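User: structure tokens for this one?
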Amino acid sequence: MPYSRGVYIAWAMQGLILLNVIYGLATLNPHLVFIGLVGFSLTIIPVLVERRTSISLPWEVNFLIALAVFLHVAGYAQNWYILLYPYYDKMAHFISSITVALLGFVSILLVNRFSCIKMTRLQIFFYIIIFTMAIGAFWEIYEYLMDTFFGAFLVKPLQHGLDDTMIDLIFDLIGAVVVAVLGTLYIQKKTLDELTNPMVDDSTPECEL
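Assistant:
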């Protein structure tokens, strides 16, 4: 079947991420190489999941994953986090939070379909927010640990004080609320099967009570 334009754009971003890894190798920047390789690995997880299971994520999710990773890697490699601070940093956090929240939304739809756990719209709303904020908190911990133990090897610190960390988390919350509101409204218009059928194989077993 033909691929959508979003898939090709996601592939292009994956290529750009690898180019930044090569740039990191050329400039002897181990942190850039590390985040580039980790980021690229994250962008291919949906493909690996699809090959090993019957679950195929929507191309929009794959596109957002590649976009969020590219913004982070390129922002560090090209110094956009410094040159365009704080606007670039907050934009990247907002897009990343929307991506994480959308992954949380898709995951809970699949849990609702294939497990005996059934969540209400209100529960799904708060799950998306809690899931997104948890990932955001882990990311801030990662930045703190990198600054603490590897700060001497970094071109710039990843955190810029308490205000920067708290504003990052606030943008994470805003992105989570946006997806939670739109997601729960979207659920009202379609059944669970209509929402998940494009992502799964018909032969996938469902929960039997």
